[in-house]
Amino acid sequence: MSWKDKMRHWRQRLAAVDWYLVSGLAFLLLVISAFSLSALRLHDLLGDAEALPIESVIIKGDRQYTSDAEIQAALQSLMRRSFFSADVNQVQEALEELPWVYQASVRRKWPARLKVFLQEQQPVAHWNGDKWLNEHGQVFEAPHKEGIDQLPQLAGPDAMAKDVLTSYRQIRELLQINGFGLKSLSLNARHAWRAVLDNGVMLELGREDKMARIQRFINVYPVLAKQPNKVARVDLRYDTGLAVGWDDAQQESR
After folding, report:
1. Same domain, 144 and 182
2. Can you spell out the DSSP letters for the chain?
3. Do residues 15 and 82 both lie within one domain?
4. What pLDDT does residue 9 have?
5. Does position 31 have pLDDT exceeding 60, yes or no?
6. N or C, where is the chain less crowded by C-beta within 10 Å?
7. Domain containing residue 69
8. Do both 68 and 181 map to the same domain?
9. 217-249 residue pLDDT tens
């Protein structure tokens, strides 16, 4: 094929091209490129902590045990991000790791704030000496705070914490109706119950029928209180009757 024939062939092929379609595709590619570049620049801008910093964190909710300093320390590294790149889930997790925080919720507040609602732990009892029990019967660890020394002492396996709290409330109510206060309640590994009253009397309740045994103690206590020696311990782990230990004498009555 001669040179002239080749040129004629290419002119024919070019003439057959749909230039309207080609120009349309070229324009589309240009638009896509422009949008991609804009999206990339916007992404960089939204992630720029200097351009769009978090200006403040608004803390709501009643707080007794969690200080502003503790919150600031927990969020220090997370606040170095921009308003849009900050992960509110990470902020929530960081706050909930504070020992006295029970629950936290976090949301963005335009234009440059985070709004946080904190719910603190509500301790209702000491648990196994160095831990706490909240109102839901959940065990948690937290440093001691002033003003909560008068809580009852509860003890038992952690998996049984909710049951111990429920039993404490039931026993306390029955005792209070009859003029007694409940200082502590414990459940040992063999699932046997022991209670200590505000007056120092220890009640051995065993594994079963603890409410009936408490009532038996209530019924007989007026007689025991008339004795010359102070009651120290009452063993109610009998089907009928009880055993009494006295403070000032090595004698028992049954």
Report:
1. yes
2. --HHHHHHHHHHHHHHS-HHHHHHHHHHHHHHHHHHHHHHHHHHHHT-TTTSB--EEEEES--SS--HHHHHHHHTTGGGSBTTT--HHHHHHHHHTSTTEEEEEEEEETTTEEEEEEEE--EEEEETTTEEEETTS-EE-----TT-TTS-EEES-GGGHHHHHHHHHHHHHHHHHTT--EEEEEE-TT--EEEEETTS-EEEEESS-HHHHHHHHHHHHHHHTTSSSPEEEEE--SSS--EEEESSSS----
3. no
4. 55
5. no
6. N
7. 56-120
8. no
9. 999 999 998 888 899 999 999 988 899 999 875
Q: Do 168 and 92 fall within a single domain?
A: no
Name 217's Cβ contacts closer than 8 Å, sequence gap at least 6.
Answer: 203, 234, 236, 242
Instruction: Give the Å distances, CA to CA, from 62 to 97, 100, 104.
Output: 18, 12, 12
Residue 183, pLDDT above cutoff 90: yes
For 131-177, the pLDDT digits (tens) are: 999 999 999 999 988 777 789 999 999 999 999 999 999 999 999 99
Question: Which amino acid makes up residue 155?
Answer: A
Instruction: At 42, list the tokens.
Output: 């916007």
Residues 232, 155 share a domain: yes
How would you class 234 by CB atoms within 10 Å of its CB: exposed for 0-12, middle for 13-18, buried for 19 or more?
buried
| pTM to 2 decimal places | 0.74
